[in-house]
Amino acid sequence: MPLDWENKVIVKKAHTKTRFCTVPIDDPNSCHKFFGKYYHSGETILVCEPSRNSCVPYIILPDGVISVVMRSGAFVGYWDAGFHVAGPFTEAKYLVSKQDFVYESPENRVLTRDNANVSISLSILLKIVPEHEYVQQLVTNVSQINETIDANIMERVRAMGRTVKAREAYSLRGEQHAKGMLEHLNANLSNKGIMIKRVIITNVVLDKDVADSMQEKTIFQFKNTLERKRFAYNQRIKNDQEEEIKAKQIKEEERKDENEKAQLQQMQKTKEIEAIKAKTSRIRSEWKAKTEALIDSINAETDLKYNEIVAEANLVETQIVEKATANAAELYAKADAYRATTVANAEQEVAPLIAQAVQLEGNAQASLEKAFVSKRKHVEILRQIEAINSFVENKNSIIFGEQKNNLLAQIESFNMVNRQSMPDEQALISEVPQDLRA
Q1: Are 112 and 22 in contact (CB under 8 A)?
Q2: Deepest of 172, 259, 345, 368, by most Cβ within 10 A of its Cβ?
């Protein structure tokens, strides 16, 4: 069943030392919810004392604890977590937590080297480690843990206070002193089953009178230093202003000197440039005269050479023309003679052919005369038919008279006669000799 204080929230008073204690519990497996909590008077629960049901032939131990097992009040040993078969007189008398605990030791008042009171507060992180004999002694008398830790802390704090004077007391919060405290506590507590993991010096406070005196002295020193630095600063500003004025004067004089030097150099350079320009103009005139003379000489030589070349070219041209004229006359004479000879030979060869062609032409004309007469007659009849057709197409025309004078009858009779008596054109063409058809 739950304890009467289990669900209460208990807060430790500020600026009080940590005190470890032992509390009785019912179920050993619920011990972890008690470790590290505060008990009635603000003590930190370090050890739980579970009750044992003697009718159960076993013990179940939780993990993360040091189990101190006793039989009939005599120490048996440290059992591991898990299921254990046990008789009715064997019990896990104490369960010690293996977790880390914060142990606070505030306001440890000691004397400095100049006998000034100083209060040093510190906080340590520790844990209980399994030891064969001493853990058993610690759990049977938990207040001994508090006394042991306090005694070792006070011993080291006294040594720390005697190493400094009052004005140096605030330097005790440094890492070096915390490291020394850690080494001292581990050296003295490691054989008692307590391991210190970290030490922090949280506060160092001097007595009010000493602190006020040191503060007034510090303020006076600060003001004195401030006045001294202000005077040095003002003096430095004046010196800087004077140096600035001197530097400006020096730079102004240097600037004037440089301007004069620059003007003098500019005048010298101007004279040199004018001399170079005059020399350049003279050289340009000389070279121009030389160039013009050389050009005239080259032009004269060129004209002379050109005239010579032209004369030679005209001579060569005349010779070539004369030679070409003679050759052309000779070629013309040869061409005329060849043409006359060729024409005579051709006429001689063509004369029989021409006579034969004339004869064939006469034969062809005699053969075609009959066909041409029929053709002309046919053309004349076609013209008459065309005239009659145009007359027939005229609606205003009137035909009257006897049958023998009927124009339409005459036209039809003409067409019948024409179709019977007109020779076939292909028959006429076949009567033409073969050599004249082409």
Answers
A1: no
A2: 172
